[in-house]
Amino acid sequence: MSTKILVIGKISFNLDFSILDEISNESGSVSKASDVKRYFTGLGANIAYGVSVMGSSPVLISIVGKDFDVEYRDYLEKRAIELMLYYQNDKETATNYMIHTSDERILKIQQENAYRFIAEQNLEDKFSDEELKAFEAVLIGTGKVEADAKFISMIHSICGNTPLVYTLDGNIKEFVNWKLNQILENTIVLICRSDELLQIEQILKQTTKEILNRFPRLKYIISVYDRDKIVINSLDMTVKVSAGPAEEILSEEYWYDAFRAGIVFGISLKKPIIEAAKIGSALASYAVEKRENQQYSPSPEQVLLRSYEVSSTFKS
C-alpha cells in the first residue's frame, strides 16, 4: 500500500496555556499563567502525518526556523516522513499561541515567523524533473495564494498527469478571480470548507457545477461542513459521505487534516473518489478520538475496515 506522496504546506508549533485572570487593558499589568503545553501542528505536517499512518511515504516541503531541529525534526522523521525543508536561520518556526482566560475566552495569536517566506522558495532547488514525476499524488495547501499558484503551475508543467490536490489553509480572503483561475485550471481535486466554496462561487460568479464545467481538469470539488456533511461534487454526480464511526469523541477540532490525508492517500492508489473520501472519513474518525493533531495511530488495516462502515448517498 506504500505510495509516494508530495505534501507542500505549513509546519508549526501550538503553544497552549491559561492565564489566571482576565486579560487587562491596563498598561504594564502582569498575568500569571499555567505551564505551556507544546503541540506539533501545521496543515502540511498534519497531512503528512496522516499519510504516514496509512503506510505511505510522504515527502513534506515547508519552510522552518532555527528552532525546528531541536525536537520537531526527529518527531516527524521517526514517522518515516521525508523532510525537504527551507530554513530561515535568523527566525523561528511558525507558532500559534492559544491563551485561555479565566472568563473562559480563548485568545488565538498566529505568528508566521519563517513561514512568511514560503512563496519565495523554488522547488527546483529540491527536485529534478524525474524526481517530481515519481510522485503518485501531490497535495498543495500553503495558505499563501502566491505560493499555491507558483507551485501548482510548476508541478503541472512538469508532471501533467500526476493527480494534483489543492486545499485552502485559511487563505480564502487572498483570492482574486485571476489567481483562482490560475490555480483551478491545473487542479484535479479541490478540498475546501462549505463556506469557502460559497466564497469561491461568489468570486467566480458561477455555481459549483458551472465551475466544474469551466475547468476541464478539475474533476471533483469536495466541500466540508462537518464530519457528517462531506459532499463530493462532479459534473456527473453529487454524493454525500457520512462520518466515520468513532468509538469516543474527545475533540471535534482536529479531524479535517486527517480527512484530507485520507483523500490524497486514496487518490495516490488510484481509488475511486468516493472510496478515497470514505478512507478520509474513517481516518478522521480516529483523529477525533484524540485531543490534538498528530496523535492518532491506527493501523492502515483498521482504517480500511472502518471505512467500510462509512456510507455514501447520491443526491439528485
Number of helices: 10
Strand count, sense and barrel status of the largest sheet are: 10 strands, mixed
Nearest-integer average pLDDT? 94
- Order of strands across the widest beta sheet? 5-4-1-8-9-10-11-12-13-14
Order of helices and strands: EEEHEHEEEHEHEHEHHEEEHHHE
Pick out the low-confidence regions: none
Distance between the termini: 34 Å
Describe, in short, the structure shown.
Helix content is 32%, strand content 24%. The chain is of the alpha/beta class and 316 residues long.
Brief descriptors of the model:
alpha/beta; 32% helix; single chain; 10-stranded mixed sheet; globular; 316 residues
Q: Overview of this structure, please?
A:
With 316 residues, this protein is of the alpha/beta class. Helix content is 32%, strand content 24%. The protein has ten helices and 14 strands. Strands 5-4-1-8-9-10-11-12-13-14 form a ten-stranded mixed β-sheet, with helices on both faces. Helix 4 (145-158) links the parallel strand 8 (137-141) and strand 9. Helix 1 (43-53) packs across helix 8 (256-268), helix 4 packs parallel to helix 5 (177-184) and helix 8 packs antiparallel against helix 9. It is globular. The model has no long low-confidence stretch (mean pLDDT 94).
Task: Please write out the topology.
Layout lengths: L3 E6 L2 E7 L18 E5 L1 H11 L3 E9 L2 H10 L4 E7 L6 E6 L5 E6 L17 H5 L3 E5 L3 H14 L5 E4 L9 H8 L4 E5 H11 L3 H7 L5 E5 L5 E4 L4 E4 L14 H13 L4 H15 L12 H8 L4 E4 L1
Parallel strand pairs: 1-4, 1-8, 2-6, 4-5, 8-9, 9-10, 10-11
Antiparallel strand pairs: 2-3, 6-7, 11-12, 12-13, 13-14
Helix pairs in contact: 1-8, 4-5, 8-9, 9-10
